[in-house]
Amino acid sequence: MHEREFRNVFALVSRGMKGGFADGMRRLGLHVGQNFLLEELWRQDRQTPGELARRIGVEVPTITRTTQRMEAAGLLARTPDESDRRVVRIGLTDRGRALRDELPDLLDQAAGRALDGLTEAERAQLVTLLRRVAENLHVAAPEDGG
């Protein structure tokens, strides 16, 4: 009955990771999940909601709600496209860009706590196995983790 054990342990890990991320993100004025949007905009600023939704793997209404909250917090600005005023572009504010210096380290610290006590070989094996699980679920796993 490995499936049930996997499901239960994975749920525990997922909850624990989310909680660990949430504590640090709250100190920065963020909510869990907003990091994905920030990371995508750090890669390429001024994207449309549709582009962000495809790249992150969520629905456009999710992007719309999230960007509204993040805009109210001063992290993002939604502005019309220069060539087609009907298209909205989502871009980082100075505050959103500044989080690039803090957020990845904060998330790495939370992940480090989760990996505490594992050898380098065990850490590598865990990442390899989780990539395979992600592939089974047809979810793109980041190559470099960052």
TrEMBL record:
It comes from the Bacteria. The keyword DNA-binding applies. Keywords: DNA-binding, Transcription, Transcription regulation. Pfam families: MarR. SUPFAM superfamilies: Winged helix' DNA-binding domain. Residues 1-135 form the HTH marR-type domain. Coiled coil: none annotated. This is MarR family winged helix-turn-helix transcriptional regulator.
